[in-house]
Amino acid sequence: MLLGTVLVLLLAGAAPASAHAALRGTDPDDGSLVRQAPRHVTLTFTESVGLLDDSFRVFGPDQRRVHTGEATHADGRSDTARVGLPGKLAQGTYTVAWRVVSADSHPVSGAFSFSVGKRSATTVQIDTGSTEDPLTGGLNDAARYLAYLAAALLVGLAAFALLCRPADTSALRRPLVAAWWTLLGSTLVLLLLRAPYEAGTGPAAAFDASALGRTLTGRPGLALVARLVLALLTAAFLMWLSRRRDPKQRPLALAIGTALAAALALTWAAAEHASAGIQVPLAMTSSVLHLLATGVWLGGLVALLLTLRRSSGEAVVDDMVEVVPRFSRIAFASVTVLAVTGVYQSWRGLGSLSALTGTSYGRLLLAKLAGVAVLLLVARYSRRWTARIGAPAAVTRAAAVQQRVPQPVGAPAEHDGPEEPGTPDRAAEEPPASGSDPDIRRRLRRSVLVEVAVAAVVLMITTVLTGTLPARAQAEAARQAPAGALPPTTLITVPYDTGTESVSGRGTVQVTVDPARVGENGIQAVVAGSDKGLVVVPEVRITFTLPARKVGPIDAELTDRGGYWSTNSVNLPLAGNWTMKTTVRVSDVDQVSVERRVRIAP
């Protein structure tokens, strides 16, 4: 299962990376026309960002790169990025490609344009470079998941040994060692991949000494170094714990273990969602508690499963009668902490109920909640068998109390020997101890195994969720976009239906108008069939008409580019609400035309 998860993450790495810092505004504005050349380009984000050596690349009207100064923060504000421009800039359109690192350690990139004096007559597609190397992104995602999983197992296995106090902990030693090595290895991989991940380059750049040096000066790199140090301290603690059997030292061991676990969780909280946005101190505290509760529950389930597998023999069975109810109580407390902190973190990341279905973050959160619901249902089933195992312990304790109750003078003496003939056997009347029933222990093992599998899936969704732009930040960026700024493209979805039963007989056409302003515009049209897949059709024709001024129709004269239709030279001379007529022909006799309105700005 773990191998499959890693493969899924590696394959998913080909998709664009999600980022957490959203661009709030640019100076000059995106798409603006300025009379005098600016001395600086300034970006403002929704949270603090880190700068790279190559954070800005500026391309001039001739498509050549413009020499710029070193990227800095504007006026000392950590949520800005600024780069100086040369004293003299030629007239025309400039494209700015940028890449920064958000406060929660994820890189974010993009591009915008502005014009000096006049807009360039033609627009050529500029290669602004890769936003993320697929292999680097996939390896980074896989290492992040393994680090989460290893930390949860490490915390949970140790907590189970200290809090549930099983008589035999030999079943936990190898998993503890494996979890420790996995945490150490994944953290080293994350540290080495940090520089290429931020720069969007291949994994080979991980061995650049200068890049590694820059990583060690940033907050994400420092958090990873702290995690390595804590991993070494944890190893020393576990070795000390394995040699100390004195019960009187258990409080000290609990205090040291809790401090190490909290510090370990803090290395995640200090470099992810909780470290940016609103209510940072409360959010980081909530994140630490959430991670600890996850570890105690998930790692404890694995520990319980391993312990149950060795529950044979009368002494071991008697021990499990005490251990299982203890873990049940600890698991209930962990779930309570997870529920409280999870609700708070969901509110902080979403900002509104509509974001649950309207954003990628919200939909991932719904998937996680569905997984947690399944997990709780299985846990309820496990708790049922846990109560059956714990029942004999309660009976034994009650009997012990009864034996200590003084008997009144003259009461019949208790017989230690055999009962007199004809006296019913009290032991025969009592039901057999359910904790000794192999069938009950087998059922509990199965339900715990299902819990572990579902929890691993939930943890994977959580890993993806931490790499997704929170809905609150996305909404904030949309609300605070600079006044007068225009989107670089306008996207119109045109549904069509020719009445035929083929896949291409009905579907949608995604039409992009760039930049949707007076003058030269580029048009791209992509046709998707009824199965949502791309389809090839004989012809797509688009014309523009401005009824208010009786202009048109102007034929876009699209060209088949082998999978999509496009043109870069549609001249729309006037501003206003134009009528865009899209005609899709799927055969020699079957075609349909659909009209949509599109706004052309001055």
Task: Describe the protein in words.
The structure is a single chain. The chain is 47% helix and 19% strand. Helix 2 packs antiparallel against helix 3, helix 3 (170-199) runs antiparallel to helix 5 (219-243) and helix 7 (280-309) packs antiparallel against helix 12 (438-465). Residues 1-19, 393-435 and 480-487 have low confidence and may be disordered. The chain has 13 helices and 18 strands. The strands form 4 sheets. Strands 2, 4, 5, 6, 8 and 9 form a 6-stranded mixed β-sheet that branches. The chain has a 5-stranded antiparallel β-sheet with strand order 10-11-12-16-15, with no helix packed on it. A 4-stranded antiparallel β-sheet has the order 14-13-17-18, with no helix packed on it. The two termini are 57 Å apart. The chain is globular and about 90 Å long. The chain has 602 residues and is of the alpha+beta class. It has helices at 2-12, 134-164, 170-199, 209-215, 219-243, 250-269, 280-309, 314-350, 355-358, 360-404, 426-429, 438-465, 471-479; strands spanning 23-27, 33-34, 40-45, 49-50, 56-59, 65-66, 80-84, 92-102, 107-116, 490-497, 506-514, 519-528, 539-546, 551-555, 559-560, 565-572, 576-585, 591-600.
Features:
alpha+beta, 6-stranded mixed beta sheet, 13 helices, globular
Instruction: Give me the secondary-structure category.
Output: alpha+beta
Kindly state the percentage of residues in helix.
Answer: 40-55%
Summed over residues and divided by their number, the pLDDT gives a mean of 76
Strand-residue proportion: 15-25%
Termini gap: 57 Å
Which sheet architecture does the biggest sheet show? 6 strands, mixed
Radius of gyration: 32 Å
How many helix segments?
13
Q: How many strand elements? A: 18
- pLDDT below 50 for ≥5 consecutive residues: which ranges? 1-19, 393-435, 480-487
